[in-house]
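quick one
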Amino acid sequence: MPGDKVRVGLVGCGVMGKSLATQLRTIEQAELVAACDAFEEAAKAFASEFGIWVTTNLDELLARNDIDAVLIATPPHLHAEQTVAAAQARKHVFCEKPMALTVEDCDRMIAVCRENNVNLMIGQVLRYFPIHAKVKELVSSGELGRLISITIYRLGGGFTGIWAKDWRKSKSLSGGMLMEVNTHELDYLHWVGGKVESVFAMGGNFLHRDYDYPDCVFAILKFRNGALGMLHASQVSIAGDYGGRADCEKGSLLFPKLWGGELIVQTEDGHKVFKAEELSTENPVRRELREFVESILERRPPAITGEDGRCAVALALAIYRSIETGKPISLRGWIM
Ligand SMILES: NC(=O)c1ccc[n+]([C@@H]2O[C@H](COP(=O)([O-])OP(=O)(O)OC[C@H]3O[C@@H](n4cnc5c(N)ncnc54)[C@H](O)[C@@H]3O)[C@@H](O)[C@H]2O)c1
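structure w/ nicotinamide-adenine-dinucleotide:
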């Protein structure tokens, strides 16, 4: 790394790749040097939009000595192999969620990054949305007493518009709804509620017959600290919605519009309102990339590690297994 800049290569020039590239370019200590997309048209379009060198061959990108780190924004089934290849080429890795499709792949990614002394950060970006972050801060501070229960609902109507990609219909490519969409919420529940003891879930494919996985799921989580969590994950909702609530011994946290909106904290003494725009205005994707870049420059682990990404993957897999077996599934052994 020359001076105090991290030189970055992007892998996957699709929707998220462009979002990462756009935000990275606003970070002074980072420079986007090159990009790779397996599809020539996507690579060329990216080159003309961002004015940088591109290739369709990942090995060629990884062979460049002027790249310190890569951002991986390809479909989920590619994350493990591409992370392993990048780490072996001694590049720090920022990998989009879901980290991988199996716990074994997550373990491989963590091990190879450790062996090659490179950072591994997973793009669990919800942690940087202002309302999400404020809920975590208040629960962790203990000022409202012990967490008793937390519920998150994220309802969509299926993958349309820019999200309508064939790979999203296949569980073996995307990980299905619980990985492709809800690793966000599973990471969040785990971050706020702590380690999960077990899950029990019901779900099925109700509407999108062309998806080979459940499109509506109710999952109950039992945390090791005794608290309860619930995720209502759905792609069958015409109206859609995204929010939740948490109840602690001495106060309730109400967040009916998680992406923005406000957080109401209700105690016996009255209520307080936090508005998203007053908490933070930094773009959450910029914020996560800034953390990645700063962690490399400061030679420290990033705030969101491979172990965090692995927990979200383990939770999704356990929920799928509970749906299939009709039984509660213990996370002991999966989440250390
Ligand atoms: N953090 C978020 O909020 C968020 C939002 C959207 C997507 N994502 C994640 O980003 C990842 C990509 O999603 P997307 O919406 O950008 O998908 P996309 O389909 O728009 O883009 C994927 C790109 O990867 C390219 N690609 C496919 N195989 C490749 C290979 N072998 N080597 C290099 N490039 C290859 C494709 O040509 C495509 O351009 C997924 O893991 C998804 O979950 C995260």
